[in-house]
């Protein structure tokens, strides 16, 4: 008879790593999303080009390769990262590239008449973005941001390939030691789902809060 | 004789291959109330949008309050205006839009106070005091805490008027401000504008299809067709006794459509 309690705590430790990766990766992705998303809307060519290059590169190459690159190739250039740092960097940059397009799309979805009202009221470009456009664009971003965050959560599994002890890695350890596949993999299946569900619910709450004033009606 | 506050000199506006305004000139005197009428596509809204710097011009010059709008002096040369110059010039002009363009995420009061606080450095307390006076004037003081989605079209437009007035512009542009309203809501907006015209010496330019209102409101009426002024004169002359055939046809069509003159 196998004593599961020890293995369960192993898996919970893995859950903690996955949670860390998700939270820190999402934070980096969010920053990159706004930098690159707004960068693509810049009136300066160089900024636009830089943002576009970043987005195309990180969307167009596999997260797998990006992670390996960050972890195994960067050390040759003198940057040695811990597995956690490498995981956060690769995931954040990868998902940030997708989310950048969400930011751009939402900003463009706010009507031109809002921009014209700002011009008529003599607001500067910055004031327009900060006080008028972004507050209306943010609620439009949330549903897709929620998708991105869940994708990122599930994407964290690839870090097990650079020996980071996340959920998937620990499940494999347990399987190797016990020879049982059903229990560890069912456990992490449920844990992944639970975490995704928490993300889903909190995003929906945030969305409701932010659209309260709009009353579902756009003017 | 005072000099014009707006001097539109031979401006040209093209949208791609389409020439909307072709060598148009208008002088507007300080305090004058000017009504621009004419068929849709005749370029009247474009003039307001150009004055608000929402469009660029393809040729010509515009002087507002003694200064070039789209050009600035650089040494002896006149060069295209930069953002800073436009920012300075826009302080003189306010605009009310056909579709109100209120900020849906802000309450009525914040819609009115936002620009004065951001662009004129007014404190929140002062901005709110002034906003409440203006909202009171347009009869919207009791809705200060409502959001635009809770208002009717007429109410939204009255808030939009208060919002534009909060910056105390010398010139106000009204772009078909009642066209998007249900018929029974038109009057409440027009009565606010009539009071405004009577109580202030602001210069006002009005694009409208409400001929009766243009008649009562304006000192001078310009009839536009295809980017040109076909006829201009005092409201009585234009509406009672139009000289040009195109003006007569237009007015007949409008009356046939049920608008009162």
UniProtKB/TrEMBL annotation, chain A:
It is found in: Cell inner membrane; Cell membrane. It is a multi-pass membrane protein. One of its GO terms (cellular component) is ATP-binding cassette (ABC) transporter complex. GO terms for biological process: amino acid transport. Gene3D superfamilies: MetI-like. Keywords: Amino-acid transport, Cell membrane, Membrane, Transmembrane, Transmembrane helix, Transport. Belongs to the binding-protein-dependent transport system permease family. HisMQ subfamily. NCBIfam families: ectoine_ehuC (TIGR03004), HEQRo_perm_3TM (TIGR01726). This is Ectoine ABC transporter membrane protein /hydroxyectoine ABC transporter membrane protein.
From TrEMBL, chain B:
CDD domains: ABC_HisP_GlnQ. It comes from the Bacteria. One of its GO terms (cellular component) is plasma membrane. Pfam families: ABC_tran (PF00005). Keywords: Amino-acid transport, ATP-binding, Cell membrane, Membrane, Nucleotide-binding, Transport. SUPFAM superfamilies: P-loop containing nucleoside triphosphate hydrolases (SSF52540). SMART domains: AAA. One of its GO terms (molecular function) is ATP hydrolysis activity. Its main location: membrane. Residues 6-251 form the ABC transporter domain. Belongs to the ABC transporter superfamily. PANTHER family: AMINO ACID IMPORT ATP-BINDING PROTEIN, GLUTAMATE_ASPARTATE IMPORT ATP-BINDING PROTEIN GLTL. This is Ectoine ABC transporter ATP-binding protein /hydroxyectoine ABC transporter ATP-binding protein. It comes from Xaviernesmea oryzae. The lineage of its organism: Bacteria, Pseudomonadati, Pseudomonadota, Alphaproteobacteria, Hyphomicrobiales.
């Amino acid at each position: 008879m196998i004593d599961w309690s020890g293995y369960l705590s192993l898996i919970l430790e893995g859950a903690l790593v996955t949670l860390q990766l998700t939270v820190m990766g999402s934070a980096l992705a969010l920053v990159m999303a706004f930098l690159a998303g707004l960068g693509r809307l810049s009136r300066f060519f160089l900024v636009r080009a830089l943002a576009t290059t970043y987005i195309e590169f990180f969307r167009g190459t596999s997260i797998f390769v990006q992670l390996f690159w960050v972890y195994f190739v960067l050390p040759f250039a003198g940057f040695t990262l811990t597995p956690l740092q490498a995981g956060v960097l690769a995931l954040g940059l990868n998902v940030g590239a997708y989310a950048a397009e969400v930011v751009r799309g939402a900003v463009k979805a706010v009507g031109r008449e809002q921009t014209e009202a700002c011009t008529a009221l003599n607001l500067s470009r910055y004031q327009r973005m900060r006080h008028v456009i972004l507050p209306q664009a943010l609620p439009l971003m949330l549903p897709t941001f929620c998708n991105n965050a869940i994708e990122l959560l599930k994407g964290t599994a690839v870090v097990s390939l650079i020996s980071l002890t996340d959920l998937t890695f620990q499940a494999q350890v347990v399987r190797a030691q016990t020879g049982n596949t059903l229990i560890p993999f069912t456990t992490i299946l449920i844990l992944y789902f639970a975490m995704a569900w928490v993300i889903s619910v909190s995003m929906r709450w945030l969305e409701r809060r932010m659209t309260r004033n709009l009353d579902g009606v756009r003017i | 004789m005072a000099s014009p506050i707006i001097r539109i000199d031979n401006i040209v506006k093209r949208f791609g291959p389409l020439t909307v305004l072709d060598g148009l000139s208008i002088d507007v005197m300080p305090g004058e109330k000017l009504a621009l009428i004419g068929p849709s596509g005749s370029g009247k809204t474009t003039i307001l949008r150009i004055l608000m710097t929402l469009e660029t011009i393809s040729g010509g010059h515009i002087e507002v309050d003694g200064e070039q709008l789209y050009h600035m002096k650089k040494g002896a040369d006149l060069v295209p205006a930069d953002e800073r110059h436009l920012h300075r010039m826009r302080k003189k002009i306010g605009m009310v839009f056909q579709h109100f363009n209120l900020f849906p995420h802000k309450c009525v009061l914040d819609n009115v106070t936002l620009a004065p606080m951001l662009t004129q450095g007014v404190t929140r307390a002062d901005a709110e005091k002034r906003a409440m006076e203006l909202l009171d004037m347009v009869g919207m003081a009791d809705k200060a805490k409502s959001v635009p989605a809770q208002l009717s079209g007429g109410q939204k437009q009255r808030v939009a008027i208060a919002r534009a007035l909060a910056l105390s512009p010398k010139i106000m542009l009204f772009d078909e401000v009642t066209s998007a309203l249900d018929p029974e809501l038109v009057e409440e907006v027009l009565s606010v504008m009539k009071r405004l015209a009577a109580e202030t010496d602001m210069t006002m330019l009005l694009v409208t299809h409400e001929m009766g209102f243009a008649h009562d409101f304006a000192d001078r009426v310009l009839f536009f067709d295809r980017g040109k002024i076909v006829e201009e004169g005092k409201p009585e002359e234009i509406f009672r006794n139009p000289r040009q055939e195109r003006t007569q046809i237009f007015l007949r069509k409008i009356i046939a459509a049920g608008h009162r003159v």
